[in-house]
Amino acid sequence: MAASPPDITIPDDLKPKDGRFGAGPSKVRPEQLQAVLDASPEVMGTSHRQAPVKFVVGSLRNGLAELLQLPDGYEIILGNGGTHAIWDGVTAGFVEQQSLHATFGEFSSKFAKGIAAAPFLNHPIIVESEVGSHPTVEAVDGVDTYALTHNETSTGVMMPVQRPIGAHGLVIVDATSAAGGLRVDLNECDVYYFSPQKALASDGGLWIAAVSPAAIERIEKRASAGDRWIPPFVNLKDALDNSRKDQTLNTPALATLIMADNQVQWLCHNGGMDFAAGRCDQSAEILYDWADAHELATPFVADPAKRSHVVATIDFDESVDAAQIAAVLRANGIVDTEPYRKLGRNQLRVAMFPAVDPADVRALTTSIDHVLETLG
To answer: For the whole model, what pTM was predicted?
Structure first.
């Protein structure tokens, strides 16, 4: 049984107004919850095949097209299940023979392991780097799918979305914790997929993807090839066809759709990606500048260019117990700053998604300072 945290009270004038800094599920704005209430009874508790729900899905798709500045011919598609579901969909119905994976953390490596277990595919090529950094990907003959990750949620590393020079394969990008918070040029990839419980400040159980014309052609080709069984639940062709009707294969979580749509509309109304990424940039500058100047803290990611602007990982000196700091923060209503469990470092992990007010990030640093000073 874990020991109780030290009895430390952080003064209210030092604490964030909102103490939620989770890397997913992330902070939900009150306006999103109100949107769910406002949607009852027209949407909540009604059929997802009918106009009221389809209107929400259409609004979300159109809003994301605006927010992500979708290139001509690209489409927003969505399906049931989270990122693991689209991983299975890509494995069964997108990769033709061989994929290449840039792995630099828990989630990027997990997808590669899933591909490696598929008996109908060649073993994937793995381009790996140490945690706290990201690899450089080059074109390889015979690779039909390049799998990149825009932001490694486990380590706090962001990687540029760029097509490998000379690559003939398609580029798919795990943007689970990046989409809506980090700038991206979607011309540089063919599938940019994510879940709504991060920058979109919603709940899980849904995956969303921006897909290029080349990706659509690949999806349709693989679905009609008939050389392997594709489970209907993860069939990307079914997701594509249903999305074009503004619906999903199975009944979706309606509250998730409503909250995601409300967040996207809020971001677009306030300036789109410049506004969304700008808030994340500001929060990141506050937190990393604080850690760089601190005697007991330092950013885990050494290269400033690779430090994520949506999920920061901050290491602490061995004289400090970061778990104790997180416990004290939690006891004071400042929650979900614990590190990713499998990374095993003496650190805090702080989400800085667009819903998080940069002023609250500054107040978080002040609160941590108070805890450190009190602990002596």
So the answer is: 0.96
